[in-house]
Amino acid sequence: MIFRQLFDAASSTYTYLLADANSMEALLIDPVFEQTQRDLSLIRELGLQLKLVVDTHAHADHITAAWLLKQKTGCRIASAAVLNAEHLDLPLHHGDLFGVAGVSLEARATPGHTAGCMSYVLADHSRVFTGDALLIRGCGRSDFQQGSPSTLFHSITEQLFSLPDECEVYPAHDYHGRTRSSIGEERRYNARVGGSANETDFVGYMQAMNLPHPKKMDEAVPANLRSGCPADGRLPPEPDWAEDLLITYAGVPEIGADWLLQHANEVTLLDVRHEGEVIPGELPAPLGAACRIPLDQLRQRLDEIPAGAPVITLCRSGRRSALAATILREQGVERVASLRGGLLPLAHG
Ligand code: FE
Predict the structure, then answer these.
(1) Could you tell me the residue range of the domain that residue 340 belongs to?
(2) How far, in Å, from the CA of 291 to the mean position of ligand 1?
(3) Based on the domain organization, do 164 and 253 belong to the same domain?
(4) 82, 108, 128, 291: least buried by Cβ within 10 Å?
């Protein structure tokens, strides 16, 4: 199985990518709206097809990317049936088996943090995605969204602690840099429900916490009940100056050689190689002359780049030009992209 744990620093949310190396079908658990570009870039670079997104609950601290990913890929949206979220394709009930070709998950109702929380267990019980029901050495709060500490105690001890000790625990959040745990570890060391804690111990702990409400709660919960669809139902704006502009998983805006050759007269070509690498006549005819500033001098010579037209950075293989594009973006140049693969694809036809 292909497996990635992704992190949103703004909300400390973990998103999980699960895919099968044979079918190349993928699913995402708890994707974050603002990280859609990142997640789609990874899926594209790994050669995967996103078929399904699934949320563990109606989050109060971030907006799900489920709807946006569905618009962009045609994937299906799954979440707990009791949430009755809009745009839902696959309402999940306790005990349901679901997934994509080669990746099978079992849905277990684990309410208590919210009434609609579900955990998702890999069919072989090797991993469980616990949402906010069980966190590493902690658990989600239980003081709003129909939360109940007593219900949460039963969910954790009966639905999660019944899994094998070695089953790896992947939560929806961690605020201290911890990435995973195991059922055995949490059964022993969880600070609220581990060891010999009983329901009275746990409920007493939870009721004494007195936490402030999440900053985004009033916005996030209604949005998540629409599966993350904005209130106006419109897609967020994206750069539209080049139709096949792609942002890589490394975060670099890239454009292909075909696009460049078709739009040669509308862009500024910025060659960031050293003078000694340049071979006269190597650029295909439509590209004409490039503005030349070696990468190590770029920050000092920004004023030599003509203003107005989009800037396409290029080098031999597309690595240095990627840094050049990043530097220009940091300097406020909005329409900039690196030529994917550099001059090599051009030279080889
Ligand atoms: Fe939550």
Answers:
(1) 246-347
(2) 51
(3) no
(4) 291
